[in-house]
Amino acid sequence: QVELVESGGGLVQAGGSLRLSCAASGRPFSSYFVAWFRQAPGKEREIVANINWSGSSTYYADSVKGRFTISRDNAKNTVYLQMDSLKLEDTAVYYCNARTTAVNYWGQGIQVTVSS
Predict the structure, then answer these.
(1) CA dist 101 → 8, 17, 83, 98, 104 (Å)
(2) Residues 6 or more apart from 24 whose CB is under 8 A from it?
(3) Minimal CA–CA distance to 104: which of 20, 4, 25, 7?
(4) Per-residue pLDDT tens for 101-111?
(5) Following DSSP, what letter does each residue of 62-104 receive, concatenated?
(6) Nearest by Cα to 90 from 7, 35, 11
(7) 5-58: pLDDT as tens digits
């Protein structure tokens, strides 16, 4: 069993930055494929970015490409999402997801609110 805990969310002005962290406990994190998702009010959950086990491969949704950076530190069992140049439309609850072919874990989510 893996527990994922997100942190680093909050309120920020448009154009500002936040760094989200997803800390895993329970089992070594290094073998998990990790992704960040988000869900805005009234909308479906959507993928934001993902990263493979070693950090050598990443993916970004078009809406965040060039502004967000996903990274991981397996020694610290943590995955990060650096969010720069935040826009109003980035306001959402952000979720961390970790999976292998056999299991799939979600964090509880953390609110990010971008104000004008």
Answers:
(1) 28, 33, 28, 10, 8
(2) 2, 3, 4, 5, 32, 77, 78, 79, 98
(3) 4
(4) 889 999 999 99
(5) TTTTTTEEEEEEGGGTEEEEEE-S--GGG-EEEEEEEE-SS-E
(6) 11
(7) 999 999 999 999 999 999 998 877 788 999 999 999 999 999 999 999 999 999
CA atoms within 13 A on the CB side of 68: 27
Q: Tokens standing for 96?
A: 């961390």
User: How far apart, in whole angstroms, are the C-alpha atoms of residue 59 and residue 103?
Assistant: 21
Tally the residues of the chain.
Answer: 116
**Alpha carbon of residue 83 to chain centroid:** 10
